[in-house]
Amino acid sequence: MNLEIDIRHQAGMLALDACFTIERPGITALFGPSGSGKTTLINAIAGLIRPDDGTITINGTAVFDRKNSIHLPPRQRRVGYVFQDARLFPHLTVRKNLYFAHRRSPNPLPNGEIDAIIAMLGIGGLLSRRPIKLSGGEKQRVSLGRALLGKPDILLLDEPLSALDQARKDEILPYLEALRDQRRLPILYVSHAIDEVARLADNMVVMENGTVRASGSVFDILARTDLAPLTGQFDTGAVIPATVTGHDTAGGITFLDCAGHQLIVPLLGPATPIAPAPATATRLRQTRLHIRARDVMIATTIPDGISANNIVPVTIRNLQPLDHAGMDVALHLGHLATDTANTQKHAPVIHARITGYSASRLNLQPGQQVYAVIKSVTVDGKLRDTDA
Ligand SMILES: Nc1ncnc2c1ncn2[C@@H]1O[C@H](COP(=O)(O)OP(=O)(O)OP(=O)(O)O)[C@@H](O)[C@H]1O
């Protein structure tokens, strides 16, 4: 199975110019800022819009080829499409919604396959209900089922989780994982959410202003620092304000103040040769720190003989178990008394990603005063001058 895209299309102010190929099954994330052309691109693949120029080939069949005047209608493209909102037929039961595409398929799925899809999506108990009686997550699962029963060669998912709250997302993500792992169907998955992409996708196409900035394996793309402005952070993390208080040019470091705690980062230019200066002696510069959860370790006492420069007192706000036996630990900066709810509300929060094993070995508890060992801090490149 492969999908070859090479199209150009003007839609209002958007000049779409996309060229990439997907050759393997699995999930390819179509990722990019709002307005970068993701929906326009998958609408072109589905046949909902006719590009100005180019070709779209699915499984060796040209479904669009402007030069040869080929533009197959959507129902002939063997494409399953799941929209942001489920778009089920409100007057039909779940069963009839599911069988809608199946009845029109030239090559319908055998009953055993249908049962397997219904079981995989966990919708067997919903078959006699109308869409109005379904939760958002259930509607999206039925919508996925309806697309699959059409026996598509490729599945297009346009932000299928964006209208759902976190609990509903957590409910449906395992079904998308099962779809990826069990059905070996190529899936083009439009998403804004890098955590969803990191969790689900094998490959990634990064779009910006209608063009493909990069495509490749999700790990390669997320490791590319040049794409960071588009891909953002890979892990949960924190963005918190800080003030530049001084520089040590000889030492190649800059001193920052973050809610009363000093942090040291590689020299930020242009440097002022002071070491560390009182706040009133220089113009302060505001910046934002990006501290990724995977770059933070937790120690119950101040560690000795350690290369990390940034060890800050923190108070555990909460611990949240993650997949793969991981644990996200939210930490207030500073050693706060447990009864100072108001102080806690205003203290910046950073996150540490540790193993559940470490959390239980250290017996970490909410309210506990510990130390965050920050291995790496990314500083927003754009420093803003401000008068002290
Ligand atoms: N038919 C149209 N007429 C005018 N402008 C259009 C049309 N279709 C798309 N656009 C414009 O193209 C741009 C890209 O839209 P598109 O929905 O493809 O982006 P997107 O990356 O999917 O965005 P989002 O993530 O917000 O859904 C938008 O600025 C939109 O206004």
TrEMBL record:
Transmembrane segments: none annotated. Signal peptide: none annotated. InterPro entries: AAA+_ATPase, ABC_transporter-like_ATP-bd, ABC_transporter-like_CS, Mo/tungstate-bd_C_term_dom, ModC_ABC_ATP-bd, Molybdenum_import_ModC, Mop_domain, P-loop_NTPase. It comes from the Bacteria. Keywords: ATP-binding, Cell inner membrane, Cell membrane, Membrane, Molybdenum, Nucleotide-binding, Translocase, Transport. Gene3D superfamilies: 2.40.50.100, P-loop containing nucleotide triphosphate hydrolases. One of its GO terms (molecular function) is ATP hydrolysis activity. SUPFAM superfamilies: MOP-like, P-loop containing nucleoside triphosphate hydrolases. Residues 305-383 form the Mop domain. Residues 1-234 form the ABC transporter domain. The keyword Thylakoid does not apply. GO terms for cellular component: membrane. The keyword GTP-binding does not apply. PANTHER family: ABC TRANSPORTER I FAMILY MEMBER 10. This is Molybdenum ABC transporter ATPase. It comes from Thalassospira mesophila.
